[in-house]
Amino acid sequence: MPHRTDSSWYTAVSGCVRRGLDSTAFALLLGMRERDVPFSGFALASLVTACERRGWEEGAACGVAIHALTHRAGLMGNVYIGTALLHLYGSRGLVSDAQQLFWEMPDQNVVSWTALMVALSSNSYLEEALAAYRRMRREGVPCNANAFATVVSLCGSLEDEAAGLQVAAHVVLSGLQGLVSLANLLITMFGNLGRVQDAERLFDRMEERDRISWNAMISMYSHEGACSKCFMLLSDMRRHGGVRPDVTTLCSLVSVCASLDHLAPGSGIHSLCNRSGLNSSVLVGNALVNMYSAAGRMDEAESLFWTMSRRDVISWNTMISSYVQNGSCVEALQTLGLLLQTDEGPPNHMTFSSALGACSSPEALMDGRTVHAMVLQWNLQNNLLIGNSLLTMYSKCNSMEDAERVFQSMPCCDVVSCNVLIGGYSTLEDATNAMCVFFWMRGAEIKPNYITVINLQGSCKSSHDLHSYGMPLHAYITQTGLLSNEYITNSLITMYATCGDLESSSDVFCRIKNKSVISWNAIIAANVLHGHGEEALKLFIDLQHAGNKLDRFCLAECLSSSASLASLDEGMQLHGLRVKCGLDHDSHVVNAAMDMYGKCGKMDDMLKMLPDPASQPTQCWNTLIPGYARYGYLKEAEDTFKHMVSIGRKPDYVTFVALLSACSHAGLVDKGINYYNSMASTCGVPPEIKHCVCIVDLLGRLGQFVEAEKFIEEMPVLPNDLIWRSLLSSSRTYKNLDIGRKAAKNLLELDPFDDSAYVLLSNLYATNARWVDVDKLRSHMKTI
């Protein structure tokens, strides 16, 4: 053009941006500067849009440059430029720059406030975005539909009921509730807040509905697990609304059918997907894979996964997670390996989090370390979910040193991180380290929750733990008002009982005003643990008089109390209740009844209760083996073990405890050692402390103290009080003062308040006619 006006420059810049000719648009900007053409808000706002299409760093740098030009041109009051820059900064995660820009703007209107809220909420600053809305209201800026849409979605994400209801009232006062798009968002928000009736009322009052309206309601019912309502709404949608289901509709319907109970309607939806041609959608395919796996139909899930026309990383994540949830850990790791060989999307934090779930047992530690190495290779170690998954994996593998290293390397931790670490130490009965993590989290101002406290209580296993940690923890619970939490109170009952203080356990129970069946179960189990079977049965009668409904745990505990008393009459009466309570096929109750009959010497009755061998859970086999061994039927116990293995049942930790105990009672050293050595190599069960106790008891019973000491030194786990108590008890039988004193010394180092250690040592002295030592020991006990 021979004569270019300012307007022609502006039109050329915006036209190039609209056509995607961003480089030309920026070249025109340079031409404007060289010819001193004044900048306009229209042109600069267009160029900010072009910045959003560039790479992360380049786009941000261009935006900052345009921001500076806007300052120099005196155009900061232009709402178009300001809003465009706010969107750019938000999309690049430059939240502080977005906030600074907003407050630089001389006039903030509803458009700029909305842009600020979007920038904050899209970067997970949800509370700050809600605060911005409240300030906008205080400053009298009227809201439009876009602003309300942003804040309604925000309240749903925050699950902030008070704020959500307040915003809903603001929408009604503004007269905008009739907008279909806004009503749809309100339905979704009410669903997220669990206010189903409010969503239903709004939906029923809508004069006009679109597909999103129907999908919002179906999605809400899906999240609530209301399968029948989902299908009723689908029928209404097609018959009265004249709306055909789309991918979103089908995904919600498939999700609500993700259980064995609802598999039949889920299969019907699968057929609908095929008929409608939507089965090619990767979203629908992923939902169907998840549905079949959740119902335990892994064959269908696998077939569907491999025949999907297109897969993304979510498809692979779903398949890996499905294998883990169905106990197919080897297949989960193999699937991860196949993903790494495809171009169907790089693995993400969800991929490795699911894969780490396949490595959550001691025998899978090496696999877990391999996945950890992959996490480092993909530079995902700083992700909080990955960090917590690594902590969980190492804790379940009993590798607490690795767990500590991960914990120390995490850039940020939350209450889940601390709970996992405390739970790991609790599993290993390491109250000292569990409390160290608790003290650290309080110093880091991470607020403990009820799971934290329950894990800490579970770590206390001795009178020493009780005095050092359990009682101070009880005081903390009282001071912080956590005694009102039923789970914590019931866990206190168990903690005191486990640590040997049944009196305090009963005191906690008596102070509970509204006792649930879980509270009764806890105190009954506490009495069973202490061998007070008669008291446990009395409590069972009191439970029934109090009007509580029996559950599987209560009935199983009472059957255990009958077993401990070898009280066949009471046991048979309790067993008869199982039919009345609808628990006649419950595996927990069946196993407890088998144990009761076995301990009462009624082997025929125990065998009658056995399910078909092909369907017997491992727990039944673990009851049958010690049942035989208890009455000297070692051959039958061994034959049962061999039969169990031959039909493909995998022995576990408890199985080998039963076998080793049988060998100990029979005095079969060689056989016991052979079983111990074959645990890990043949069956993949790593030896744990109870297995080691059985071997020490076996060697001690035969007076083989040299071998016992050597075994203790070479044990794969640290010796605990059970090891030393067994050795101390055996030393009395053989009048071995040297071994007895060593065992007592180690036992008292673990727990200086252990009365049984002093009693056993005193008995050892008496057996050896060391009466002076007996008197000294009794005098010392009085000073403790």
UniProtKB/TrEMBL annotation:
<dbReference type="InterPro" id="IPR002885">
    <property type="entry name" value="PPR_rpt"/>
</dbReference>
<feature type="repeat" description="PPR">
    <location>
        <begin position="414"/>
        <end position="448"/>
    </location>
</feature>
<dbReference type="InterPro" id="IPR046848">
    <property type="entry name" value="E_motif"/>
</dbReference>
<dbReference type="InterPro" id="IPR011990">
    <property type="entry name" value="TPR-like_helical_dom_sf"/>
</dbReference>
<dbReference type="Pfam" id="PF01535">
    <property type="entry name" value="PPR"/>
</dbReference>
<keyword id="KW-0677">Repeat</keyword>
<dbReference type="GO" id="GO:0003723">
    <property type="term" value="F:RNA binding"/>
</dbReference>
<feature type="repeat" description="PPR">
    <location>
        <begin position="617"/>
        <end position="651"/>
    </location>
</feature>
<dbReference type="Pfam" id="PF20431">
    <property type="entry name" value="E_motif"/>
</dbReference>
<feature type="repeat" description="PPR">
    <location>
        <begin position="312"/>
        <end position="346"/>
    </location>
</feature>
<dbReference type="Pfam" id="PF13041">
    <property type="entry name" value="PPR_2"/>
</dbReference>
<dbReference type="GO" id="GO:0009451">
    <property type="term" value="P:RNA modification"/>
</dbReference>
<keyword id="KW-0809">Transit peptide</keyword>
<feature type="repeat" description="PPR">
    <location>
        <begin position="109"/>
        <end position="143"/>
    </location>
</feature>
<comment type="similarity">
    <text>Belongs to the PPR family. PCMP-E subfamily.</text>
</comment>
<dbReference type="InterPro" id="IPR046960">
    <property type="entry name" value="PPR_At4g14850-like_plant"/>
</dbReference>
<feature type="repeat" description="PPR">
    <location>
        <begin position="210"/>
        <end position="244"/>
    </location>
</feature>
<protein>
    <recommendedName>
        <fullName>Pentatricopeptide repeat-containing protein</fullName>
    </recommendedName>
</protein>
